[in-house]
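Risk register update: the risk of archive-format incompatibility is retired. Evidence:
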Amino acid sequence: MSPLVYLCNQARTCKESFAPLNLSVSEFPPNSYRTRGIQRWKEHLGAERSEENNENLRVALGKKDYEQISHLLSWGESLNVDIRHDGCPLIFWAIHDSAIHDSALDVVETLLKRDNIDVDFTDDNGRTLMSWIVSFNSSHEVVGGFRDPAQRRIAGLLYQKSNSLLNHPDKDGRTPLSWAAEKGDPYVVKWLLDQPGIELNSKCKSGRTPLFWALSNCLPFGSLSDLRVRYLLETPGIEKHSWDNKGRTLLSWAAGSAQEQAVDYLLADDNIDVNVADDDGWTPLTWATMEGKERIVERLLASKHRVDVNLADKKGQTPLFWAVQEKHHLIVDMLLSRDLVTLCSAVRNGDLAMVKSLVGAGYDVKRTNLLNQTPLHSAILSGNYEIAEFLLSRTTAINGGDNEGMTPLRSAIQQRRVDLVALLLKHSAETKEIKLYEWFEGYNLTGSFYVCLTENGGEKTLSVARVNEIASSNEAIQGPQNRSSERRFFLFKNSLPWQKGLIRDSIEILQPNKLHLSESVCAGDGKHFVLSAAILLFPWHPDQKLGGLLIPDKEECRITWTIRRGVDARSEPVWVPLDFFSTLQNSGTPEDGAELFTQFLDDLERRWLGVCDLAEEHLSNCRLEQLEHKGSNLTLIDCLAVDARQWAEFRKILKGHAQDARSFAQKYCQRYNGGRGLERIRESIDRIEKRVNERIHNLDQTVRDLLQLISLPTCAFAGPC
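Archived output:
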């Protein structure tokens, strides 16, 4: 066989078998001519073969046939390993596909053993080869994590070829450690953390450190921890008190992704703030609640830190709201007893469905918020009739005041919501704390109107009419009709109805300082009586030439009530109160005449103390005037003499009031009220006498002191004589 034929046959065989051409000169006879020819043929066929192998490599890369690529790479160094597919080199694709192709890792290791391999390539997102290789978690795909050692070897080879790859950020600012922390194998993360110069807390453009990315992974059901998180948390120098660009903390991420051991680790830190809210207002508790992470919620609530369950997000929603919204019933049970604001918030927002859900879940509708307001307060303040009606159907505790003393009824009156006032009265709202002027201001009434509160079996109604129209309903004039348990309380801004004779048997003109008390039969059968009390305390207008205390005119104070003969539950004869008429500020419907008379006495005490205040102010002015005149104002003696007589007159008037009130109370309570209320009235009278007499005594002493001051020599004011 000729050398040429032999050479051609060898080339054909190699081509068919994809084996490298291997020719030996010893197979030919020793001839220099023949040797040079064979060498030239070898070079020609080798170049042809290299070009063909490069083409085969390109085809294999396009097909992602890494077994064929590995086979081709084993032929030698003549292949072009920088060959590209879609703009990226072979080594990039081998690393990129190593998560799904076992043989791709072999290709990567083979390539990295070449001296001329370029490892500084970055893709369109700026990610390096190191970034890609450490971001694959082989344990998810391969039982036992058999790829992990190979990944670490490859990462080590890359680091040896270019240590700048260790912390090289991509276009989003994420480093290889950031990617490994989120997606990589735990032991690759550990390897990175052990490398000198590793940047532990570098933040990406979203403000997250590698630990943030590790905590963003939700653990599979039943898992308690992530080794990547554990390795990061246990590394000295890891920052544990930082926020990402959306304001989320590490605890927020751990809570939202159910990283239980990470949550425990972070909660063990005495300096951690467990209530930090992100840009949406969501706290770690909110995240755990929204995601339904029951064990995390339990850990947060049981921690040594004071987790605030009442913090609302930017939309005003609390953790309990989200628990109900997402139907996380176990979390609802955990939060119900701790929450103070969610029901009130739902009420303010007019969310009736949420209100019903919360109440249905067991929320206490009597619970107050930080302002001491109940959900009913919130319903009234927001003017929501439907929700107020629903809440009233679930509770009878409707009279509590908030920190400002505002009851639901008072709020409704101030808002002039007649419909809400009627609703509250229907459910027996207490009117005792509402002052007369509040009714008139709330209903925008003048003194020519009156307000009538009607109570029957606990249910109350309110009506408004002109004073001149009272004759059509005033049973003090027409005679009371037989009514069962209905009682009416007429409130007047002034004494005009009495002065006009619209109230039966009333005294039209009052004598100043006299306590007018009366009793009269209302109907001819002797079964109905009208009882009245009235006072015009002072005014006092002494001769201004002599000086003395000036007490201006005061509004008359009047009350009237009617009673009728009836029987009690045991068929025993009793006197039953029917209607009450009053100019007092109190608007709570009295139980009986004794209670109304006690209110009258309280007002009398207030008026007496007001007179004493004026007297003390008058004497204080006298003292200043005497000091200004340095004792030379001798006319002050006449003025003080007038005052002294006035204090004596005060004692006389007060004594008469006390005697008349005791006599009237004794007679009324014993005859018409079964003795009820008498002791309370006596206590009021005793208190008035004691307090006012003490004040009058002090006034007397002040006058004596001033008279003694006036009697001193003039030099006592000017200095040594």
